[in-house]
Predict the structure.
Amino acid sequence: MDKKDEMMIVNHEFLVKKIYIIRGQKVMLDFELAEIYGYETKAFNQ
C-alpha cells in the first residue's frame, strides 16, 4: 500500500497545534499539511 493510500486520523487538538496566527491570518505550514495528507512537501506544493 502506498503511503498516500493510508488514512491518517487527525484529532482537533493535533490540528489546532499546527495553526499559527501570522499578521492576523490563520496559516498552516506546507510541510505540516503535506504530512496530514500523506505527501512529500515537494509533491504537495506542486
User: Anything to note?
Assistant: The helical segments are 12-17, 30-37, 41-45. The mean pLDDT is 83. The CA atoms of residues 17 and 28 lie 10 Å apart. The first helix runs from residue 12 to 17.
